[in-house]
Amino acid sequence: MGNSYAGQLRTTRFEEVLHNSIEASLRSNTIVPRPVFSQLYLETEQPLANDGRTENEDEDDEDGSQSNSPPVPYHLKPPPEGCCTTDGFCQAGKDLRLSSLASDPLDVPTGFMLVGVRSPSLPENLLVCTVDRRFLPDERGRNALLGFSGNCLGCGEKGFRYFTEFSNHINLKLSTQPKKQKHLKYHLYRNNQGVLVKGAPILWRGHEGRIKQMGSGLTEGHVTSDEQLPSVAPTHPSHTRDGYTAGSHVDPVGLPQKAEVPHPNATGSHAIPPTAQPAVSQSGPGRPSATGLHANAGPPKKRHKGWSPESSASSVPESSVKTPPSSSTVTTLSVPFLVASGGRSETAAPLSSSQGSLTPLSPPWLSVTIPDQLLHTCRLQPVIFKGHGPLPQLTGNVSEVLISSLLHHCYLSSQTLPRVYQHYGPSPIQPLSTEMQILLTVYYLVQLGSNQVPLIEDLEQIFMRSWRESHLSEIRQYQQPQTVATQGRHYGIEAPSILPGLAQHLSLPPQSQQPLTPSQLPWLAQLAASSCGQGVVVLGEQIGSLAQGIQQTFSRLMEGRLENTNYVVIIVTAPGQETQSCVIVTGKHQCRALAESMYSPSEGLKEINHQLSTGIAQELIHYCNSLGQDGDLDSLLDNATVDSNEPSPLSGGQEQAEERNLKTMNSPNDSQTPCSKDSPSPKERASGPKYTCSEYSIEWREVRPIQLAVARKLLSHVCAIADSSTQNLDLGSFDRVSFLILVPPSEVAFQQTVLHLWSSGVLRGLDQECLSQREAERYVVKMDQSAQARIDILIREAHSNSYTLYILVHDHAHWEVNSASCRSSDDALGLVDRLLNSRQVRDAPNIVILHVTSFPFALQTQYTRISPYNEIHWPSAFSNDVDLYHERTRYYGVSELLDSTRSGSSLPLMRYDSSFENMTSALEERFPKLHSAVIRTTVLIQHYCIALMAASGRISGSHNLHKHTSVETLEIMQSLLTAAQNCPSHHGHMVVLRIPSIALATWAHRRLSRVRRQLGLEESFEIILGNPQQSLSIGQSFTDQIKTWLKIQDADWVPQTYLELEALSCILILSGAEPLGESLPRSLKYCDLRGISCSYLQRTTIEQELGLAAYLVRAESRPPHNPGPGSDLLESDADKLSSTDNEEEEGQENGHSPLSSNQPLQSSTESGALDSLLTQSTSSLNAQKGTADVKQSPSQSQTHLQPTPYPQPALHHQTHSQGQSSSQGQPIAPLQPQPQIMGQNQFISLVSSCPQPQALPPSQSRRQHSKSTSSGSQSPLSSPPHLNCSWARGVSRPPSVLLPRALYDIITGTDSSGLPRCTSFLPHISVSWASSFRPLLSKMMTCTEQSLYYRQWTVPCSSHMDSSNRTEGRSDNFHPRRLLLSGPPQVGKTGAYLHFLGILSRMLIRLMEVDIYDEEEINHSSQVEGTQYHPPSASWPNPDVMKTMPFDYTIHDPKYDDISGVYNPGYNPNAEGNPVRPEDVYLRRRTTRIKLSKYAAYNTYHHCEQCHQYLGFNPRYQMYESTLHAFTFTHLLIGEEIQLYFIIPKSKEHYFSFSQPGGQLESMRLPLTSDWSPDCIKSPIFTPTTGRHEHGLFNLYHAMDGASHLHILVVKEYEMAVYKKYWPNHIMLVLPTGFNGAGIGAAHFLIKELSYHNLELERTRRLEGGGPTGDVWPFIVLADDACVMWNTVDLDSHSGPVELAVSLKQVLQHIEACPDLAAYGLCGIRKWSSRGLDGNKHRNSFSRGHLHDFLVLNVDLSQNVQYDQNRFSCHDVDFVLRLHSAGLLVCRFDGFSVMKKQIAIGGYRTFIIKTKMTDVPTSVGPSQYVCAPDSKHLFLASPAQLLLEKYLQHTSQKLFPLSTKNYTHPVLSVDCYLNLGPEVTVCFVGSRPHSINISTTGLLFSGLLLCFADSFVTPGFLKKFSFLKGATLCVISADRSSLRQTVGRLELEEEWRFRLSDEFQTANAKEDQPLFFLTGKHI
Fold this sequence. Notes:
1979 residues, 12-stranded mixed β-sheet, 28% helix, 8-stranded mixed β-sheet, alpha/beta, 14% strand
């Protein structure tokens, strides 16, 4: 029924379509017009616009289930009356357009998704709705439930169950039946800016196969010529795409997506591709044109039961469904020939199920039967790389064939254009065509070597290079408008100059000039393949389907016709169909490598364990044990003679001659063999060696300068987090640090971290109770199941201890990055995610996470949790060869190892072993079912066993064993056996043997130990099994040896880390899937990585294996970048063969064919010369032949070895040299610089006494070059002693590294940027590339730029713990307290972060400490202190007693040690103290660091939870909510009204009274004297401040211990805004504008006068209220803004009086509680000093004298004594003197003290003297502060009073010459105190009638100072005083007239002589009101 209309012609549009087609063909030169009948039969029901295109391009996709019948007319249900019918709005009138809702927050119910609906009436916009994801297809276009469930986002109506109903509601206004497949078009998502945008299309199943089905249905008449096509069509294979779905965990943000690109076809014509081409219009990379082809690829209309997706699956170009690769797809995009996602799941066994989704299967009649016995017959398991098109179904013996989708994913990725090329309208840029991809694949396979395995990375780069070259101009056009691609650098896409993996002679086809057609492809591919013979076979023209080609390949395999073929490429180019392809790998080596790469790392280890446990590997072991005609390995071992009388391997006369020479020379190392019975055992060595090695030292405990620098960088980043405005970390609230270090589950790594922690001394500062290394273990936890409990404890502690900052250090952070959601049977999987990313840890404000790793790439993805600003990269210690950190060591890592392979001047430190590789290759072909790791490890251990037997000299005929091992292995064992013999303390070195499989490592350990035991060498060296799950175990004798070296006395001590094996001769078999951060000692000499896997080629995997050999070389030796002469001639390395090239010659000499001819020759002359000599010493069977061969190249060896510092012995190894007769002295002599000086016997003795040739470190070699060449007689016996120690030489040279050949080739190869190829690999197995269109890493990139590169171009896989770290609407989701420290392996990161913990703790303590002025009181007088007035226990002063106490005029405050002393009759400065020297005046005052008590005052940087409300964070009041109130009063002295302003926060208004709520401010409320509350302070606290809005200590919450108090900040008008900003909840008293330039005196003056006026107002208010008037509290507190803490004296302490911290509340309440407080005019407390209580047992509890900084003022009693409003300095001294003179009691409570914090910023003492001409910088001296009146002088822009005070302070010795240093003749100062400098003494007297003054009888004054003399100063008053002749008079007045009036009124001219030149004024302009003064001399 559904097809009843098929074939009917749409006659109504025939003429129109025909006309359009003809018009298009006439207009277009290049575009092929679409066939008319295709339009008529297959067009969507859409009218054509004028240009020939449809009006709506996106309406091309019809419902997949729709038949070919014409649509039935659809009648819309009329909308309800009154509803909205506007397009883009729902019937409720709400806007649904994406453009309108893009930034609005939308409510998406659980289980629903945001979907974009395409409305035909709004082609340029989408409508937004939410749809139940169950009714939408998944990423494969499947599993969508029938029906519909959606909600309207506009009006919120929910529960639409029918799409028809829903389409009516949202006003789609359709003319056809509404179908969800047709109108639900796109997923919607929020981009980085939080804007809702169109995402991936919804993959409705029916839309995928239309184009292909139509293509196959076209007739030949519709095909046009290939040549007319302008470009190659983008196409993809037939498959069901892994797209983005609702349930997917892949965010489309950042993934490559196809965006819509309008067609560049401006002519209106249309083109249909030819049948031979992919059926897609040639309009670019976008979707097909609106008139695109449609076919019925979906189910029948009624979805008959017989329909299945597989049966009708067909192809569609990727461009028609724009979707990013899904998580699983991206995972395998660029993994080099390795892991397909899901590991082994891609084998053919589960093909029908697991491959069904990725590869739609062909119909059953296209299936392929796999022949039986395929693996047995061909000895290989073929690998089929799925390419383009569906693979046929495989039947039969499917387990013997593997299928990989790696190539398929590479094709897909390289055809997914990045969005950057789709943003600018019509685009000519297209991806590579299918044909070009296939041809490039053939090119790539052709140039691969026979032993090389294809790397997907290389092929991907080839595709990218070809694409870039073909679109170079367009790419540049798109790159120009791009501004910023990443932070810091724009990583533009550039065409690489050299393509890795592609031979440069293979030119890429010129795609841009002429497109490649399907018909050309087969013969071009065959032409390319013909260049490599049978290596690559192309099946193309003769086959009709992939099934036929695969079947034919299997047949050829079984017939043996593909013996020399590695790859079969099958290409199918049938007319009318898409090009299909696949690649079958048939090379034995390639098949094995690809098969093993399909295992995940854990699966690979399980397979190895299975093969070992089932005994499959026994045949291989037995085979390797057989040595052919030389016997069996076990039988040779059984016959080994372990006897001291056994002759050494030196034969016959040679041995005897050598013995004679040894005895003649008396060499200290005279053992015949390295391991003879005469050599001491480790116990004998440990018990008491005759000589000790002086060079041995352990350095892992030392902190290096670069580690300190990194620790400080970490600290600065933590401080930056704290300083940021985000308030994510409040360092000021923490008083201590705690930490937990998380390490991988390796016992050695755990103990190593504990050792570093204990040795660092960090715990001594953090945990005083931790007294042993074992107790330190609680700070380190292994990330196993025990970690959960430890983290939970830490979380609970962090929650309860909010004042402790917890640092979680995640060491080796790249090890476990799995998501907790992926948890399986392995409980450890996802453990880090569960613990560190839990909400409790994430949200705790006092937990900081520090990730530490050498390989940070897994943590640098698009979804990373770590901000790029929180990354710390290890700095380079050297820059241009300059040691930046003065390191004694130099790091030698992976890059330096690579450099050594390119230097060419010496044997590289990193190399491979060709003979070992050849042997393993042969065995891999013999044992195809065994895992290569089993084969390689078995061969390797067999080589070690044979080398040990040969080197030991305990096997008869051991010279025959050499050919059964490699020279590299033999060298390792000989060096290991002989090293300890050369050192008096028997120091040796370590050999690391890396075997990842624990089962294989256990077998290897057992095997080597057995051989060692049978050879009797148990005491010579140790064999250690390094199992991460077990603790370290070594023999007792070796433990004793180490204890002797380390000088450890503990009997129970055993080594627990590899570091403690320093200098121990040992083989360490390091097992485990990957290294877990274990550090190796500096005695490491060989790092044997020949047994590691080559299957997992990620950057992290490769670099962490190479990182085992990373090394800190002593800095005195140059790094071997460009080694000097002799730099590689350490120990036996000088004799090392160039890999195994000479072994081939050896084999020929012994009648064997060479094993390999692939080994490249060494480029250095050294290796050539040495090899020609050393080959003879190791492999010649007779001395005669050896002598002749050596003679052939004396000049060569002489030429090369001339620069060596010492004569180098030619013997490769003494223990196996054969036939070295005495006649060999001559041919070997050319090795010496001057051979004639040393005789034959001397040379042989040299060889014997020094079995390993010696060399100096390179730097010493250079220094001694000329000397040693001229005096060749120098022997090692006279060399520095440490050269005999293998360990001492080893620390100057990095270890040698042996690699598998395949890995060596990859690592040493470089890409186009010059970087090693491994850097372009996928960085980590858990991440994937975001796009194939990424640039390569640049060689010039810094670590930061590399991080930004990976953050842009990698995304985490679904199993990665960061894959869920995405927040809707946010551009990032960084954790604010998470840092990342990265640095190369073994560089010292542990020491750096441990030191960071230490300095962080010290910094927190430092933050809890302040600099307190700690100065002892000055000018003490024992006479005054000797009298006891009050009992020590008195709480309050007695006024009567205080009146009897003499007033102490002397100033004791040390801050005033630079001012004039006040004359005190009872004080003699000459006897009691020393005057301050002038040079001490400007010295910094003494301070001490004191930890803040809990009662401290704080500045604005302090934020704790308790302070929030106090500081203005009260939820009842908005922040900054305060009001400004004016307050006016009149003062008689000023003579005018004073207007002040109060800024009163809403929360503090209850302290004031207003005329009405919110009305005029009337007064500040004061309590009554009788009021008392334990939680209230009665006295208002005034704090004048300037310039200290941040640093002033105004937060008194803790100081007041929570008590209620009134605190008022007194600020200047111009600072009002900034103080209000920083202290929003504080009351401000704003001084009048005229006081902006005033000093502290003005502030105190206004405070006091305001307070008295307010007191009167309060009394009036009380009186009006009917209360008592005199009972209002009259006291105020004047506090300095630097008062930080208060103390009280505890007299009851057992150790004498001590000071204890108390709150300000306690101090004030105690003073306020004084019974007779109203009798005192002024009270205060003592200034704190650390020596304040020393030696003063009879100190009074109270004293009467000067008070400073913290005052309690009685404003009532002191009404008539005002502060001098003009004063800038010493105002408090002046005020106290006048207050005392007025008869008021002044009392200091000496039982309390105040601490003043040193604040270097702001304050009233910081006034700058500057000129009026501010643009002229001038330095003005004090002498210029005054000038003669009416003179032309440089006027200054400072207040006149300030200039006068400064002038008098600095020039008084000129003004008062008789007063200088003359205490007994002071200057008389009337009614005021002015500072005349420290050398002048001032005697203060008051002029009031009732003033209390000192007795001046008999006192002669040296001067008289009258400052603003009032009417109380009379001539009679002055006549009471006597003056010295020549005494100076100084009269100061406000102007010249008042000055003259004062002189006349006081009759001064009678006794004083004046001159006109003695009149001065301050250097102020007239408008600034200068002050005038007159000086004169006493007659």
